[in-house]
Structure formats: C-alpha cells, structure tokens
Write a structure and sequence with these properties.
single chain, 227 residues, alpha/beta, Metallo-beta-lactamase, Chain A, 7-stranded mixed sheet, binds nickel (II) ion, binds manganese (II) ion
C-alpha cells in the first residue's frame, strides 16, 4: 500500500515500498504546512526546480536525515556546493530505477533560478512508477502544454496539478490539463498558500467531476490518500 500526504503548496509525501519520499520539501516558510522541517522523516527528497518554495528546507532535511536528494544536474551540483552530497542527478526525459520505484523527469514550462542567482537548470515534473505499478505524475510548477497528453498515455493513477494561477496553470488551464492527462485521480496543489494564488477549489473539483472522467481529491494540508 502507498500513502500520499499533501503538506500544502507543492509539498507532497509519498510513502511507497517502505521508503519515505518528499517532493519539494517546503515546510518552515510554508504558511499552509502543518509541520516544521525539523519534524520531517525522509529517505528521499525529490526537487522539481530551484525556486525557494520548492527547494524549501532541502538542505536542512538532507543534512539531518541523510536522505538521498534527486533533482536535475544543475540543482544537484548546487546542493553539492552547500555540502549535500548524497544526491542523484537526472534530467528531463531520463528515468532511473530506484528501490522505491522508477522515476522519470518530465518537462515543465516555468523557471528554475536558485535563491542566490545560480542557474537551476530547467524545471521539471516527476513521473514515479511505484514498485507495485502505480503511476504518479507531479506536474511541478508549469503552464499548460499539449504534450501532457504524452504523459497521460502512460496511464496515470494520480496526477498532482497546480491550479493557483499567476505563477502556474490556473483553474481553467488545469481543467484542460486533466482532459489531456486523463488520470484516475487528480489532486490540486499550489493554491491558497498566499492570497495571490487563492482559488475556489471546490468549484474546480465540481468542474472536473462534470467535464472529465477523473476523480478530484481535494486534500487539506496534512491529509493523506491511500493508493
Ligand atoms: Ni516555481
Ligand atoms: Mn512554486
């Protein structure tokens, strides 16, 4: 059994095959997170891009727990300069088999500069195939793009899509993304963290139910979903 936890914003826990993975571990400055970085247990940290609301507490959690950090080459190189050495670099289109599953980086339409101005490479989404064959697509921060259809062709069980607008897809483009990806379940993320990205998520979920075959699961920060 696999357990997904949403910690608010784009921070997602995925417990699978005995491994605790955290996507974009943004806790201490995340007004929506129910926990602090110092409480987080992690074996693996997955980083979609270099922005501070995604890198978040990566360095502190990696140093405390020794978790393996997986991201693109540029971010992994930057983390190495900060003393985080248990890392694995991948890049867009490339997959790798880990003990917790097969992880592929996918394209995302966004930026990735790091806090100190360093080049964070290209932003990515994550496509994880668990050991028991479930496929989870975390889109990361992205605008809508037509090749989401190609990602959908893989047969997605759970898609995590930003709906907050301004920095990423808003509700209407996220609804179009659901139609392209056709996941069994869709979980909205990257909204209601700050006023600028406040959205009526229940209305969006209603639109998904009415216009697509996917089941929307609106989680509260800290809430979990078994799959
Ligand atoms: Ni971003
Ligand atoms: Mn973001």
């Amino acid at each position: 059994m696999n357990i997904l936890t949403w910690y608010g914003h784009s921070t997602i826990g995925i417990n699978t095959n005995g491994t605790k993975c955290i996507v974009d571990p943004f806790f201490d400055n995340n007004p929506a997170s129910p926990i602090k970085a110092s409480e987080v247990e992690a074996d693996v940290l997955l980083i979609t891009h270099g922005h501070s609301d995604h890198i978040g507490d990566t360095i502190a959690i990696a140093k405390r727990t020794g978790a393996l950090v997986i991201s693109n080459y540029e971010i992994v190189r930057w983390l190495g300069q900060k003393g985080v050495l248990n890392t694995h670099a991948q890049h867009i289109g490339g997959g790798h088999q880990y003990p917790f599953g097969y992880l592929k980086l996918t394209m995302a339409l966004h930026g990735s500069i790091l806090e100190d101005g360093s080049n964070g490479g290209n932003p990515a989404g994550l496509l994880l195939t668990t050991i028991d064959g479930k496929k989870i697509y975390c889109a990361g921060d992205t605008g809508l793009f037509g090749d989401m259809r190609l990602i959908g062709e893989e047969g997605i069980d759970i898609a995590l899509l930003p709906i907050g607008d301004n920095y990423t897809m808003g509700p209407s483009d996220a609804l179009r993304a659901v139609k392209l990806i056709d996941p069994k379940v869709v979980v909205p993320i990257h909204f209601n963290t700050w006023n600028l990205i406040d959205q009526d998520v229940e209305k969006w979920a209603e639109d998904v139910r009415r216009e697509t075959r996917s089941i929307p699961k609106v989680l509260l920060p800290g809430e979990t979903l078994e799959f």
